[in-house]
């Protein structure tokens, strides 16, 4: 019986410690908008951006991978996709232009060499 109690206690403490490592999203009211910061399980920032008070995505949103590298920059207006979104994936960058929440154009660049063009 003592072993069962000790084992249960060890499991409970382990689960409590694990759940405390996970960071809950942060929300902060800024004027007419709500600033959101969402986190990966490892505690690093996953996304940052704004919502309207009625829950629609608004303005610039940035996404990051689990290592903290930026993977995307997106723009919204009242929940609609607008402007030029940028996606980063290793040596590739894509720019996607949106018009009326629909893709208007996609451009892709691949980094094959790094050179200083001007100094």
Could you characterize the architecture of this molecule?
The protein is of the alpha+beta class. The protein has a single domain, classed as Outer Surface Protein A, domain 3. It has one helix and nine strands, in the order αβββββββββ. Strands 1, 2, 3, 4, 5, 6, 7, 8 and 9 form a nine-stranded antiparallel sheet that branches. A hairpin with a 5-residue loop joins strand 4 and strand 5. The radius of gyration is 21 Å and the shape is flat.
The general outline is flat
Number of helices: 1
SSE succession: HEEEEEEEEE
User: What count of structural domains?
Assistant: 1
Radius of gyration, Cα only, in angstroms? 21 Å
Provide the low-confidence segments as ranges.
Answer: 12-17
Helix vs. strand class: alpha+beta
pLDDT averaged over residues: 85
For the largest beta-sheet, the strand count, sense and barrel status come to:
9 strands, antiparallel
Q: How many β-strand stretches?
A: 9
Percent in helix: 10-25%
- The fraction of residues assigned to DSSP E strands is over 45%
CATH fold title: Outer Surface Protein A, domain 3
- What's the level 1 CATH class? Alpha Beta
Return the CATH architecture.
Answer: Alpha-Beta Complex
């Amino acid at each position: 019986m003592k072993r069962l109690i000790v084992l249960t206690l060890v499991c409970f403490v382990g689960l409590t410690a694990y759940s405390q490592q996970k960071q809950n999203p942060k929300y902060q009211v800024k004027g007419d908008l709500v600033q959101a910061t969402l986190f990966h399980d490892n505690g690093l920032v996953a996304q940052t951006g704004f919502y309207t008070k009625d829950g629609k995505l608004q303005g610039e949103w940035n996404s990051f991978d689990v290592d903290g590298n930026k993977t995307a920059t997106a723009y919204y207006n009242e929940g609609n996709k607008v402007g030029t979104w940028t996606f980063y994936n290793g040596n590739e960058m894509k720019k996607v232009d949106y018009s009326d929440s629909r893709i208007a154009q996609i451009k892709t660049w691949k980094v094959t060499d790094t050179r200083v063009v001007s100094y």
